[in-house]
Amino acid sequence: MRGGVMQKSSGEGRRRMLPCFGVATCVMLLLLAAGIRAVPEKIPIGAIFTPGTDELQTALKYSFHIHNTNDSQARFKVEPVIDIVDSEDPFKIARTLCLQMNRGIFTLIAPTGEASYDTLASYSNTFQVPFISPAFPELSSDRPAFYGLSLRPRYLRAILDVIIHYNWKVIYYLYDTDGGKFRLRNS
Question: Any transmembrane segments, and where (predicted)?
Fold first, then answer.
């Protein structure tokens, strides 16, 4: 008894098969169509920038353009969702991130500073949205972004290991922000 339902025919007492090919065919076609279209045609990628990050914006737009015009390799297109926030105010960044998540972004790309990192890492962890940054702050190990990726590795620990390895008694450490002095002091 494959492929059908047994039904008693009227008058003869025999059973005959009623084919279920229509239902089976529809289910197979739906599964096949779902398998072919498992990846959306356009994937929205969110980006939040602050003023002064023109080089990062240009690099991101260029990489999106290269990906989208490479027809032989790309199985999907990337749709940039780019917003520029006028400061690193956590409230403004959170509001912009919520608007981007409402637009259905799959991941977020944003440069982080000390002020914005906590907000971005918290939202990323809460909503399990991947978060990519050119560099996390050095102190971010206290507050990890479980779904975050920093493109620049942490180097301060490596510098300290070199100093210890060579037993240098005097070093000169140049920094361009107060954060550089703070990181050296806390390492």
Answer: none
